[in-house]
Recover the amino acids of this structure.
């Protein structure tokens, strides 16, 4: 009574496997879009952080500090020229030396930071160029993906019609049991084959009665262990 239905079920399962392959193609196509979108988003987030890093180098502050010190240096140099006593001269010279040391130290840091800043600004520019340039690429990919996905969806839809037609050919009690179990096992397959008295999914051994009931198509049986709907392997041969 169930042998014909078992054969339909075998075909249904095979068609579903094929549909899954098309669904995988759709998923990987869509991933092309989301990957690029992700990279574009990342470039902008990175830039936000880079801008903060660059600001924290405080280049303008250092420049102002150096200018201030240079102003003081000029003033001190003029004062030194007008010094009348040796102690005065020594005092100015000492102050000048201290400021020169300070300027030297600040300039060293300033130039190091200037180099860092240039590197950061370059990366920001590269990221912005990528962001702008990848917009057209993104549109191209979206168009390509839309075409491929539409094609895959047609294939899936046609195969699903065939699946539904086969499902209607199955014995009503098998159909309702299968549809119920399909929901329970999703996304895994809810059927397994009985091969050498064993369930092909969980390898649990069953008894001889179950085997003959199935192979003669007299009843529907589920694996006592994983509860998948069992299809007799012999149904494949017909
Ligand atoms: Zn099992």
């Amino acid at each position: 009574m169930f042998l014909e239905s078992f054969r339909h079920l075998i075909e249904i399962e095979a068609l579903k496997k094929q549909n899954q392959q098309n669904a995988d193609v759709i998923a990987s196509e869509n991933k092309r879009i989301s990957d690029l979108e992700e990279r574009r988003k990342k470039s902008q987030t990175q830039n936000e952080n880079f801008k903060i890093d660059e600001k924290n180098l405080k280049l303008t502050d250092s420049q102002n500090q150096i200018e201030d010190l240079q102003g003081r240096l000029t003033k001190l140099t003029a004062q030194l020229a007008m010094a009348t006593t040796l102690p005065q001269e020594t005092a100015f010279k000492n102050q000048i030396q201290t400021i020169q040391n300070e300027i030297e130290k600040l300039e060293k840091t300033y130039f190091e930071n200037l180099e860092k800043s240039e590197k950061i600004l370059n990366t920001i520019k590269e990221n912005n160029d990528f962001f702008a340039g990848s917009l057209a690429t993104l549109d191209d990919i979206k168009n390509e993906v839309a075409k491929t996905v539409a094609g895959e969806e047609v294939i899936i839809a046609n195969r699903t019609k065939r699946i539904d037609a086969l499902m209607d050919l199955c014995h009503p009690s098998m159909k309702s049991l299968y549809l119920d179990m399909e929901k329970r096992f999703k996304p895994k397959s809810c059927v397994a084959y009985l091969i050498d008295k064993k369930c092909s999914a969980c390898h649990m051994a069953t008894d001889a009665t179950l085997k003959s009931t199935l192979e003669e198509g007299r009843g529907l049986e589920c694996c006592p262990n994983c509860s998948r709907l069992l299809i007799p392997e012999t149904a494949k041969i017909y």
About this structure: The first helix runs from residue 3 to 56. The mean pLDDT is 95. The CA atoms of residues 21 and 156 lie 10 Å apart. The first strand starts at residue 191 and ends at 195.
